[in-house]
Amino acid sequence: xxxxxxxxxxxxxxxxxxxxxxxxxxxxxxxxxxxxxxxxxxxxxxxxxxxxxxxxxxxxxxxxxxxxxxxxxxxxxxxxxxxxxxxxxxxxxxxxxxx
Length: 99
Fold this sequence. Notes:
Helix content: 40-55%
Strand content: 25-35%
Low-confidence stretches: none
Radius of gyration: 20 Å
Distance between the termini: 69 Å
Number of helices: 2
Largest sheet: 5 strands, antiparallel
Structural class: alpha+beta
């Protein structure tokens, strides 16, 4: 009986607790979304949030092109410092490839 209780405790700390923490972080990310945020979706689409409704949002993926998707489909927010660092890396690698 003690072994079974220890097994349940290990499973709790290894599987269930981290999953709940990830879910809480995702709920917080969704709640903090605001128009103008750069986001990435579960499908890998990058864009800027143009408007937010109760259960969905509009995402501008190109100038003049908006798509509507569920708020839960957003998996991450791209911070300005991450964006500028990735742009600098892309520019450096393009310069190396071209000359």
